[in-house]
Design goal:
This protein is of the alpha+beta class and 191 residues long. The protein is built from three helices and eight strands, in the order αααββββββββ. It folds into two domains: 2-37, no CATH class; 83-189, Immunoglobulin-like. Helix 1 crosses helix 2 (24-37). The chain starts with a helix and ends with a strand.
Length: 191
């Protein structure tokens, strides 16, 4: 399709010139492209987007962490150390998947050992389709597994027409106000 557009439309416009040797169709195409693309790739858009997405939230996060002589920052550092020390002891158990009414119902055993359950997030993950965004859905922590230290059942229903083999579970660090994976880059994939 791309080659036919180039061959049938774009290239002929470049060679079709008026009496002054100017390819008017080509020039019009360039102007139209610039009118549509310049706002997207402009420095103004970049500065605005960075300010809205990164600088303002970063300044707000700093203010939150600086309150009470940085007590929140201290709690974050302690949490990061705890996650780093205990991460290698985390593991997945069995995962069951049922299908009902066009939904997958995932039930997953997760063993956190000595790490607190609120220190992590368990998600169902699937790669994006056709360049789309990945699917990242948080699972709910349910009942505790008897005879374990911080072993739980996590569940999630997923409405989809994709095959169940597209989905896997993952475990990532979680703490309010912390930018994951920037500030806590651990990840554990179910195998």
């Amino acid at each position: 399709m791309l080659y036919s557009i180039l061959e049938d439309e774009v290239i002929p416009e470049f060679y079709l010139r008026n009496q002054d040797g100017i390819p008017l169709g080509w020039v019009n195409r360039i102007r139209e492209s610039m009118a549509r693309l310049t706002p997207r790739f402009s420095a103004n858009r970049t500065v605005r987007e960075y300010t809205e997405k990164y600088y303002i939230p970063g300044a707000q996060a700093y203010k939150t962490r600086a309150v009470k002589n940085g007590s929140m920052g201290e709690r974050i550092v302690l949490w990061q150390q705890d996650v780093r020390q205990k991460w290698s002891h985390l593991r997945f158990g069995d995962m069951k998947v049922e299908t009902a009414e066009g939904k997958y119902i995932f039930e997953l055993q997760v063993y956190l050992n000595s790490l607190e359950p609120d220190s992590v997030s368990v998600e169902i993950y699937a790669d994006g389709i056709g360049g789309g965004d990945a699917l990242c859905l948080p699972m709910r922590r349910g009942r505790r597994l008897v005879g374990t230290e911080n072993g739980y059942i996590y569940t999630r229903e997923v409405e989809t027409d994709r095959p169940v083999s597209d989905f896997t579970a993952r475990l990532i660090p979680s703490f309010p106000g912390v930018a994951v994976p920037l500030e806590a880059g651990h990840i554990l994939w179910q195998k």
